[in-house]
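Supplementary Methods, section 5.1.

A reviewer requested that the exact input to the structure prediction be made available. We therefore reproduce it here, unchanged from the version used in the analyses.
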Amino acid sequence: MVALSAMLSACQTFPTDTNTGQTNLIMTNNVSKSTGHAGVKSQFAYGESVNAYLTLYADVANPPKMLEATWYNDGKVVTKKAIAPHVKRQPHFVWFSINSSELGSGTGKVEIRADGQLLESETFSVSQPLKWSDCWCV
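The structure derived from this sequence is encoded token-by-token as follows.
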């Protein structure tokens, strides 16, 4: 896990004692609220769900007000998605999802920020879409 020691706002920091202030980001294609993630992936098929699954050890009394995922394809911003987390305990799990067809094929990247401060980033790849010539017909 990567310790976060950067400022989140003018006067707010994540304390680094115990696990508070640590994060872990993985990429996966299947996430469930009841069972968590289905395993780590770095290559996604065109049209497949891409999930950035973040484990966040935040100060429950003073959690981040906003988490934002910025999704990239080949270095260009494709979209941003933000949520206001409801941190009630540690660790807190949150995920951001996008269909790989929205990103397009190539090298993808996601950056996760808490109140504007970069927490984690991961790169991954999205395959080319299948062409009709790639399909078998019966």
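The first helix runs from residue 100 to 103. These observations are discussed further in the main text.
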